[in-house]
Amino acid sequence: MRFFRRVRSRMRADDAGMTTSEYALGTVAACGFAAVLYRVVTSDGVKAALQSVIGRALGVQF
Fold it and tell me: Residue 61: what are its φ and ψ, rounded to 5°?
C-alpha cells in the first residue's frame, strides 16, 4: 500500500504542466477552430444577418 502512495505522489508532482507536444496540439486545434470560425463569419448568410441587425439598430428613431 505504501508503494502505491509513493507512486501516486510522484505522479502528481511530475505532472505539473503541459509538454511541448501538448502545446503544439493545442495550437493546431486553435488554428483549425479559428479557420472554421472565419469561414462561418465571412459566409454570405452571416454577413446578411449582421448587416440586417446593424441596419435595424441604426434605423431606430428616438
Answer: -100, 140
